[in-house]
Structure to design on (352 residues):
């Protein structure tokens, strides 16, 4: 009788306790809380691509950089509170998974392998640049198709989707070639300029960026055909939904602001008008600006987080125009990167 009682009143509860401990989720502080407590966002960038992230007069500038700045403005209240880390393609995922950086904003293609738990374990924010892989050649070579590169050497970045895509396409089309691989884009481009390879392949945006700083940009041409789809998006580490949600909706806020015509110059006027009651009938706008409702609170952010982001960097269209518009040296037509109201692919879900 004593043995049975011991099993019932001692062993059974002990097993139940052990089982509950084994299945209980770990208490985990979100990166959002850590970033806010630290008062600074740690952002991983390339730092070598004009128009996207580039060191100019001692400061980083570009589309990817302004995404970092917008997130910092929305999360810690100051777009300048960003600690930038330059990363190669090979370093970027380790830097994110190890906690060296909070956010990866470095022309990174969203793929199934990178998004899955069995791959790189990333959580992607909305795509900020729809791209495709291209080929850059010297104009005087007269090459117009991939077949014109048969038995030639092509410079490519190692540890990138472009390396695999190039091999897949060349193999499928039966075009023999040799790949010359580089970790750093500047080294890749210099090898191309020195004549070590007949062509260089990368995202078309990256090729436009690289060409913009060549000694004679007009001597080089990007072939018409595209080798792949390359949706470029910022990324956070997998498993932290609170942080991922905050980053995601900051990016969507920049897109929604463009659609609504809210800019860096007029956002204060929109807020004043909505606060005074002039926009009282427009409840959706008042929620978007954080004047009523608790959309920001639901994310762990100030309710006016979109206003803070737009005041710091402008809406998505302004960011694009500033770094990639027709008056810039990189100058990439928006195309698919237009707002959906202008025939592009950028589309923010409802803020409600």
């Amino acid at each position: 009788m004593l043995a049975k009682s011991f099993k019932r009143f001692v062993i059974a509860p002990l097993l139940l306790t052990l089982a509950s401990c084994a299945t209980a989720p770990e208490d985990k502080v979100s990166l959002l809380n850590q970033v806010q407590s630290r008062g600074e966002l740690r952002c991983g960038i390339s730092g070598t691509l004009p128009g996207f992230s580039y060191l100019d007069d001692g400061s980083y500038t570009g589309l990817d950089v302004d995404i970092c700045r917008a997130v910092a403005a929305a999360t810690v209240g100051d777009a300048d509170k960003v600690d930038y880390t330059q990363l190669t393609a090979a370093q970027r995922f380790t830097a994110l998974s190890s906690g060296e950086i909070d956010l990866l904003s470095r022309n990174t293609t969203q793929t199934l392998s990178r998004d899955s738990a069995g791959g790189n374990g990333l959580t992607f924010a909305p795509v900020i640049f729809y791209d495709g892989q291209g080929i850059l050649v010297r104009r005087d070579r007269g090459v117009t198709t991939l077949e014109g590169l048969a038995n030639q050497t092509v410079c490519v970045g190692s540890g990138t989707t472009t390396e695999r895509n190039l091999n897949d396409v060349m193999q499928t089309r039966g075009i023999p070639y040799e790949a010359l691989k580089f970790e750093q884009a500047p080294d890749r481009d210099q090898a191309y300029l020195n004549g070590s390879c007949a062509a260089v392949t990368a995202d078309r945006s990256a090729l436009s960026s690289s060409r913009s700083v060549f000694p004679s940009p007009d001597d080089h041409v990007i072939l018409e055909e595209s080798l792949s789809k390359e949706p470029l998006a910022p990324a956070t580490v997998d498993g932290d939904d609170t942080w991922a949600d905050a980053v995601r909706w900051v990016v969507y806020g920049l897109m929604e602001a463009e659609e609504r015509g809210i800019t860096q110059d007029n956002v204060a006027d929109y807020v004043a008008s909505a606060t005074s009651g002039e926009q009282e009938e427009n409840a959706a706008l008042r929620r978007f600006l954080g004047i009523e409702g608790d959309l920001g609170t639901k994310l762990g952010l100030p309710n006016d987080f979109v206003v803070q982001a737009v005041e710091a960097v402008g809406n998505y269209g302004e960011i694009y125009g500033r770094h990639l518009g027709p008056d810039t040296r990189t100058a990439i037509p928006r195309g698919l990167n237009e707002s959906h109201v202008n025939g592009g692919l950028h589309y923010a879900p409802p803020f409600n």
In short: The CA atoms of residues 123 and 207 lie 26 Å apart. The radius of gyration is 24 Å. The longest strand covers residues 133-138.
